[in-house]
Write a structure and sequence with these properties.
- This protein is α+β, with helices and mostly antiparallel strands.
- Helix content is 16%, strand content 45%.
- It has helices at residues 2-21, 271-283, 301-321, 347-353; strands at residues 28-40, 48-49, 55-64, 69-84, 90-107, 112-131, 134-152, 157-171, 177-191, 245-258, 288-293, 330-334, 355-367.
- Strands 1-3-4-5-6-7-8-9 form an 8-stranded antiparallel barrel. A 4-stranded mixed beta sheet has the order 10-13-11-12.
Length: 370
């Protein structure tokens, strides 16, 4: 019996902790703010308006009736202002007091919200400078309205930028002071509790016979996951039914031009052929060209090797300077007499062997066939 009683006592003592662990967001919050305040005292009737000490602060606590409206109580210090009254006395005033107001919140997207407030301010206005040996003060109840914009860093922590307007802060003992003020500041608040995760809806159980999806383009990928309709049957496709491509490198012999005996100067009639080569390179900017120089089998082989190199360089330079082809896409090489197109040293063999050839290399994107 004693053991059972002990169990009941222990379980009962743990109930508040269990409730706290399962607690959701509460309606209670607290916070504090810092800002600047601008008094609008009766300077029109004053001899001189002094400098304000505009720094203001407040602490507050609130209760939310729902997510959009609540009540808030706070203590506010609105800073100080100075002026010389019509009676020649120097006055300074600082307003402190308790505020009670109704607050409204209007949620926006991405954790942003707007706010508004209206309420009363039970104030005490005090003059620190002694008048006839005494400090003057007066109290009353004024009205205030406000607006703001807020951002929730977390479900609990919110930062707000606020504006408030205070009306009817009067003090007869301070040279019939009638005063309003404007406040701008930032407020950081903390709401108690923990947000509970959104409930996960149970997926409905559907008992139905689902027809097997078809494959209209016959590429082996069913219509429900095929992202590329009408793929040719000869193309290899990926898991989503789209054509698989490969990069293929090919070389093209775009012909060449001939040179005079023992010359690396480009003939005037050869520029039409060079222009065709330049047009091709401009049309396919991913292509590159190798200019291969050659010579006839007349004279020493070492001399002919250097002559063939000069011919290749002359054409490469013309492509770059005359037709604007980037030098990074052009290479040149001389082969001398090692690669003749016609064997021997006849006049015709010598004529056709004094040449350059343009070998273009290009990478093309082509579909992979089944």
């Amino acid at each position: 019996m004693m053991k059972n009683t002990l169990k009941v006592v222990l379980l009962t003592s743990m109930l508040p902790f269990a409730a706290s662990a399962a607690e959701e967001m509460t309606p209670w919050y607290i916070g504090g703010g810092l800002g600047i305040n601008d008094y609008e005292q009766n300077c029109d009737n004053a001899l001189t308006c002094g400098d304000d000490d505009p720094y203001a602060w407040d602490v507050f606590g609130g209760y939310l009736f729902n997510e959009n409206i609540g009540i808030e109580v706070g203590y506010r210090d609105l800073g100080n202002a100075e002026w010389t009254g019509t009676n020649g006395n120097m006055y300074d005033v600082g307003a402190t007091g308790v505020s009670v107001g109704v607050v409204g919140f209007y949620p926006l997207a991405d954790k942003w919200s707007l706010s508004s407030e209206v309420g009363t301010y039970s104030y005490l206005l005090e003059n620190d400078k002694k008048i006839n040996g005494a400090n003057l003060s007066d109290s009353g109840v004024g009205l205030f309205v406000g607006a703001g914009v807020g951002y929730n860093f977390t479900d609990n922590l919110k930062l707000q930028a606020k504006y408030r307007r205070y009306e009817n802060m009067d003090a007869d003992v301070l040279d019939n002071l009638k005063m309003e003020s404007n406040y701008w500041g930032l407020a950081l608040s903390y709401r108690f509790g923990t947000a509970s995760p959104a409930p996960v809806a149970a997926a409905p159980v559907v008992a139905a016979v689902v027809a097997a999806p078809g494959d209209d383009d016959k590429d082996g990928v069913t219509n429900n996951i095929d992202k590329c309709a009408d793929t040719p049957m000869t193309h290899k496709v990926d898991a989503t039914g789209c054509t698989v491509y490969e990069n293929v490198t090919s070389k093209y012999d775009l012909g060449g031009i001939l040179f005079a005996n023992d010359s690396a100067e480009i003939r005037a009639g050869s520029f039409a052929d060079l222009e065709k080569l330049a047009d091709h390179l401009n049309k396919y900017p991913q292509h590159t060209v190798s200019i291969e120089g050659h010579a006839s089998n007349v004279g020493k082989a070492e001399y002919n090797m250097k002559l063939s190199e000069r011919r290749a360089v002359a054409v490469a330079n013309a492509l770059n300077t005359k037709y604007g082809i980037s030098s990074s896409r052009i290479s040149s090489v001389g082969y001398g007499v090692t690669k003749p197109v016609m064997q021997g040293s006849s006049a015709e063999a010598n004529r056709v062997n004094r040449r350059i050839e343009a070998i273009v290399t290009g990478t093309e994107k082509r579909p992979v066939m089944r």
